[in-house]
Amino acid sequence: MDTFPILTIVTFLPLVGAVAVAIAPARNARALALTAALATWVASLLLVIGFAGGPQRGGLFQFVIAADWIPFFGIQYKMGVDGLSLILVILTTTLSWISILASFRPIKERIKEYMISFLILEVGMIGVFVALDLFLFYIFWEIVLVPMYLIIGIWGGANRIYATIKFVLYTLVGSLLMLVAILATAFAFQAAHGGSWTGAFDFEQLRSFAATSGFADGLQLAAFLAFFLAFAIKVPMFPFHTWLPDAHVEAPTAGSVILAGVMLKLGAYGFIRFALPLFPAAAQTFGPAIIVLSLIAIIYGAIVALVQPDLKKLVAYSSVSHMGFVTLGIFVFNQQGLDGAILQIVNHGLITGGLFLLVGVIYERTHDRAIAKMGGLAGTTPVYALTLGFFVFASAGLPGLSGFVGEFLVLVGAFLYSPIVAAVATFCMILAAAYLLWMFQRVVFGELSDFLGGLGHHLTDMTPTEVLTLAPLGALIVIFGVFPGLILDLVAGPVANVLRDVTQASPIAIAPEVAVVAIALPIAYVVLRLIYVAYEDTRGGQAIEAGGGAR
To answer: HEC string of 244-259?
Structure first.
């Protein structure tokens, strides 16, 4: 299979499906889109069959395909997978067909356009994980933005325009800075090789150059910050997270599944694949500050999720908290932490994707997500209640399910880095259990609420199609919880390579005032944000009182 263009097929098969959907009558759009997504999923499984694992080959790129694209600048069409990208490609193709199947009932208008957008989105996401040329990586990175913009902006909720513009603006700012950093890195490589552009965008050659000669300290600091901003917005890390709750709440159910399950992982993948190996000294320099931001994200996301009245927004803020564990595991720079971060990347996609599907199930019946209006679902919809309980406990880190293993390894890695950091992160796990179990208790137990009781025969249990969308996710959560080695063995080589690159570097000396500003900015942001929210709440309360007085 090394000579067969399997990666090209896996990447662009959804595009073939999108063309077929565009040509065919609208009544066939759902079936054609699902067929294309399933075919892509099957083709991606062939990668697993042909992938040669083990310490000798597990860390090397396989199925590599390379061809000159813009030879004057050394830009190539170059793709390949190692254990890390292989896992994420499988996650993407799995969640894609599940999301398309879950869209059959909710999406009733412009079905053809919706399915085309979804399939093009899949092309971009797979391309990000397999691209080995930085310019090609950037192209796929930007492709992802357009269909998600359409999915939220056309098929989203009442405030979809505001949410999608906010999402695009945040992402574009980070992306453009990353493009500048890619070009600067290529120019530096070209200058160091006598003016030759050969390999200037080739990730493998750039990584080799970074490990031997290394980029200048100033370039490392500036380029790492640019890459960091692009990836931190996508994760999203605090304080760049504010686009996420709005996008999740307004997106259709399947859009939220892909947003949480795959698109957030693009940022985490970018850190591991590009930022750490190419700029290891800068990563060492900014690592402590990023760990602080990760801890703030874990705490902030959990506390805000605890007080959310909207079921979907609760799950959205839980993503901020859980992805904080991912970035924490990455930047403690040890094997346990990085293993746990990669496990959490996969686990979060499976678990939070399932939770968003379950929110969509109840929303389709009630057209409401207010937790206060729920209650008593265990007696009326027992299958739904049981399924929700399973995913809630998985998200809370119940031993035996996949969420536990990833969080445990991250905490072990954090303890090796600093017991204080591990103590703070461990305390936040209690908050996670609090907001998840409290939500579950209010939604499922007790007497059937008046609101749900008034729905009558519309309040039905899960359909076979809805069960089918969740069953694969539940099965994988159990399998990876019992056998986490299935993932850890695949990523052992990439983890060893990344840690070797970053631990051999030393932090770059920077002025103390720069470090103070880097730490003070997020703190100032939090304080100003709290003041603004308090002001808005006060003004809203005064408006209500004034309105009441007028009446």
So the answer is: HHHHHHHCCHHHHHHH
Give backbone dihedrals phi and psi of 194, rounded to 5 degrees, phi first. 70, 30
Amino acid at 229: L
Q: How far apart are CA 531 and CA 525, in angstroms?
A: 10
The tokens describing 90, both together, are 């499988």
CB 68 within 8 A of CB 46: no
Under 8 Å between Cβ of 515 and 292: no
**Overall size of the chain counted in residues:** 551
Q: Using CA atoms, how far apart are residues 96 and 58, in angstroms rounded to an integer? A: 26
Residue 119 phi/psi, 5-degree rounding, is -70, -40
At 115, which amino acid appears? Answer: M
* DSSP conformation class of 431: H
What is the full DSSP assignment across 249-293? HHS-HHHHHHIIIIIHHHHHHHIIIIIHHHSHHHHHHHHHHHHHH
User: At 445, phi and psi to the nearest 5?
Assistant: -95, 175
Cβ atoms within 10 A of the Cβ of 306, count?
Answer: 17
Q: Which residues contact 35 (CB under 8 A, 6 or more apart)?
A: 17
DSSP state of 213: T
More confident residue, 509 or 142: 142
DSSP 449: P
Residue 181's Cβ-count burial label (10 Å; 0-12, 13-18, 19+) is buried
Is 411's pLDDT higher than 50?
A: yes
Spatial separation of the C-alpha atoms in residues 140 and 127, rounded to whole Å: 6
- The residue type of 341 is A
Three-state DSSP at 350 gives helix
Average pLDDT over residues 192-221: 86
Beta bridge mates, 313? none
Average pLDDT over the chain reads 86
Q: Please give the pLDDT value at position 551.
A: 37
Helix (H) or strand (E) holding 468: helix 464-482
Which residue bears the tokens 């005064």? 542
**Contact criterion met (CB below 8 Å) for 277 and 497:** yes
Q: Are 178 and 273 in contact (CB under 8 A)?
A: no
C-alpha distances in Å from residue 284, one per residue of 99, 226, 499: 38, 16, 11
- Using one digit for the tens of pLDDT, what is the confidence trace for 216-267? 888 888 899 889 988 988 888 887 877 888 888 888 888 889 988 888 889 8
Q: Give the Cα separation of 172 and 151 in Å (integer).
A: 17
Token readout for 343 is 């496990």
Taking CA atoms, 6 is separated from 45, 56, 93, in Å, by 11, 22, 14
Closest Cα to residue 481, out of 398, 369, 383, 367? 398
280, 315, 283: which is closest to 301 by C-alpha? 315
